[in-house]
Amino acid sequence: MTVGVAPAEIDTEGGIHAMKTISWDEFAQVELRVGRIVSAEEFPQARKPAFILHVDFGDEIGVRKSSAQITERYRCEDLEGRMVVGVVNFPPKQVGPIRSECLITGFQDEDGAVVLCVPDRDVPLGAKLH
Question: 85: which residues sit within 8 A by CB, 6+ positions away?
């Protein structure tokens, strides 16, 4: 660890970078919602190993599709039914042959693999992060 530097200021390669400060109003614009994975499938056309996830964010938002690079720690058959946290107000993004409609959140572990960001208890689908 670099002495005198907060951990959030150290990037994944161990270098120091400046963290941009945002306002509360900017953060409030990000719609982080809870969803449940209803299906997961291999995404062989992706440049990097990924799954195609279909995530139910409840009646207000519905089911959204996402490409997720989480293949190092998860298998398709283990993802169905899992709760996840996703950004649902980004514009759709073309990822190869699919149109990704949300961003499923996660954190890199000590090996650089992505681990899903999940609530520790069941909450209603579509619940907003506060």
Answer: 32, 33, 34, 35, 104, 105, 117, 118, 119, 129
